[in-house]
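The instructor's notes for this session suggest beginning with a concrete chain rather than abstract definitions. Hand out the sequence below and ask the class to guess, before any prediction is shown, which regions might be ordered.
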Amino acid sequence: MIELRPFASLGGENHGWLNAKHHFSFAGYHDQARMNWGNLRVWNDDVIAPKSGFPPHPHRDMEIITYVRTGAITHEDSLGNKGRTEAGDVQVMSAGSGITHAEYNLEDVATTLFQIWILPTRGGEKPSWGARPFPKGDRTGKFVTLASGFANDDEALPIRTDARVVAATLKAGETADYPLGADRRAYLVPATGAVEIDGVRVNARDGAAIADVETLRVTAIEDSELVLVDAA
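After discussion, reveal the predicted structure:
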């Protein structure tokens, strides 16, 4: 089963400093049919203007993954962490028992990113933050795990949930398989390009909600950069 969610159909609002599109109900956008996809709760497609950003605000019991598409984001939090995450790289914040953080675009150009929230399996633990680079060349023609709640994904950033965030970079005509499992759900968004899944074309920034598939096969129609959440 594949449900296409075209970018033009997404909710959202342009705040000037932030142009946000929401794949799922978020803030002022509510759609009862788009509340979550398994334990995936939020997928926001954000464009943040230069020299602006999200001032300090609190979270608890949520796994928040930020995938930077262009530009960079600078993180600060109540634990004393501070870091700059560039395009293609990933940061993970496990809100746990509570954390306050700010995310700023200190660059001279707009920053674009995917902000992904996944409900945790374990709540109330100490909050944490981490980031690391994931060179796009390492993902050529295959899916690479960026963040994971599974113990055997040693190279990925840890998250406290039964889920995995993966990415791939495909040349036009290339195909990559992902072993999803028929009891799991996937949500895939091309950051760039266009792909085909079981005869369905998914363009850049469209969402594809996928279920009841043992092995997910993705074929690039154009050179494409993909991000996928494997959710419980």
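Then share the key points. The chain has a mean pLDDT of 96. The first strand starts at residue 2 and ends at 5.
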